[in-house]
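Wait, mind explaining this?

_____
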Amino acid sequence: MVAIIGGGFISNIHAQCYKNLGVKIEAMADINENARKDFAIKYDCKTYQSAEEMLKEVSDNIEIVDICAPTYLHEELILLALRYNKHIICEKPLSINLNFVDNIISKLKDSNKFLMVAQVLRFWTEYVRIKEWFEEGIFGNIKLVSAMRLAQHPKSEWFYNPKKSGGGIFELHIHDIDFLCYLFGNVKEVYANGYKDENESWDFINSSIKFENGISAIAQGVFGITDNYPFTANIKVIGDKATAEYSLSAGVNLGSDSKQSNTLILYRKRKEPIIENIKTRDAYELELEYFIDCVKNNKKPEIVDLNSIRKTIETITCLVKSLESGEIIRIK
């Protein structure tokens, strides 16, 4: 049912999720011979050096192409999968080029195939609960929101080239920016400051976002935290009736070992705090299960609507403009 393009870290996570869900991985394509050998052993699938060669041979046996390749290859691989008339799930970011995003949205308007971007926080159980509380009005009038994500830099050459990856702002900071946009809607204006690394990549970012509904949020992203500092994520939603805080601390990097703690607490006036004991399922698995269900039932993946993804990419693009210019950028 599924063919995967890419044999690296995230493709292995996706492959294990498919295995857990009982979904057959028909094939995988990657230019790296060792990655192909490992994949074939782990997941009992065919492997190919070329994505096009793979799709030529297995097209009749699959419905979904899962693109886990480097960001700079997303455009050509999405267009390739569309030529073979397949549903597509593509790792984030969809693109670092807003014009390409618009082009893809245009191409899909008259298509009966779905494209979903793997913005995993939209399926992360604790973030989902925070969104539920917001929609239920638990927080009252929201006074301030903050989000933070700190990670070590991946050991991958293309990540270090911002022309290929977009840098830390597109590869890491985008998680929190996307969730904030998903939570609060249209953005009115942004401002950001920070530092580039030695490769001219924006990897240290402080962002301030004002939404059209009047809510203000700040977000901090660090892609290149000190060696042995744990992967860390945090979000606080502060209102006049309640405050929620989610904290995640993993090992040296997310998914690297079992040293991980998750805490979600809801604080309310004159009431005892609620420590949420959510029985979490793996968010990557929930994400893929959702998309498979959409394909099976011919239902558009509304949780990750492409127009909302465009807003995220537009917001990130404007944050880059603010970083470069030192000015507030207003979004029309």
Remarks:
- The first strand starts at residue 2 and ends at 5.
- The radius of gyration is 20 Å.
